Amino acid sequence: MAEISFTVPPGGPARRADKVLAAGFPEHSRTALQRAFDAGRVRALVPARRSVAARRSVDAAAAAQDYPTRPIRFVVPFPPGGGADTLARVLGQKLGEAWGEQVVIDNRPGAGGNISAEIAAKAAPDGYTIFQGNVAHAISASLYAKLNYDLVKDFSPVTQLASTPFVLLVNPSLPAGSVKELIALAKAKPGQLNYGSSGSGGASHLAMELFRSMAGIDVRHIPYKGAGPAATDLISGQIQLMFFVQAAARPHMSSGRLRGLAIGSAKRSSALPALPTIAESGVPGYEAGSWYGVLVPRGTPERVIAKLHATITQVLGLPDVRERLANQGFELVGNSPAQFGAYIRAEIPKWARVVKASGARVD
Length: 363
Hints:
The chain is 42% helix and 19% strand. It has 12 helices and 12 strands. It has helices at residues 30-39, 48-66, 83-99, 114-121, 135-143, 179-188, 203-215, 227-236, 246-255, 302-316, 319-327, 337-358; strands at 4-7, 42-45, 72-76, 103-107, 129-134, 155-170, 194-197, 220-223, 241-245, 259-263, 289-297, 331-332. Helix 3 packs across helix 10 and helix 7 crosses helix 12 (337-358). It starts with a strand and ends in a 5-residue tail after the last helix.
């Protein structure tokens, strides 16, 4: 007797006749089909869609093995020329040299970094679009009423590239030579000291709000359109204090135009070793700064993520890279995808509490 072949619906292949009725067999055929199964004369075929899925899986694995075979787009949420852009370009150049494929920097500033994040989140998850996420994206999760992306759900972490801590700067005329003296002065004059920021809801604003809350002081926020105008008013004495990223703070400190009181990192910076941390200066547990990392669209193959991670961390260990980025005020990290993912998940609720306390909101 000839062998019978048929295609079963998804969920098969079945080994019992009662599982194949949905494939179009009449109910009276159940007994005959069962006998045919038992006799080995019926061969169940894997559904076409399963075969396609399996083939795609094999193709994806092969592509990941050869990755990369064409140029990679590196989406950066900052305009050309700044420190974060420099970080991306140094990394991109070295990755290109290691792989023999060009890494194209795609600068997409705007909307607090959200434009770039939306673009990257919608990209194909094939490893040919990578994204420079940063602290602003963790803040945006609670600052913005609506976002078209989710930093945790729409991305897979690769590694944290670097951090650059905030430095607390004051006008030299302010009678405070330490964090403890500043706190005492602010408590003696509640609401009379003004601090600047690069804009409401920005990282420098929320870093000061975190400091204000943890130190128990009342200082007044003066938002500016960018750090430049705020620095001008801090130097002239129109405002009394402000947080700057380390790279921007160092020239002001070395010139004597502004006084550095402490740094917002967990430990002292190798670039400013004499400057104490805010935590050791009277506000235990305080930590604030900008961080930068590489993420990829969710669904990117694990082999691609592993190759990206391995090559990026190798680049971060190169002496010339370390020297150049240290001069830009960056502290290099290079942690694992799991560690970076945990860090992001901790950053989002941390800044959500600060955003809520500050009352900042973008509709």
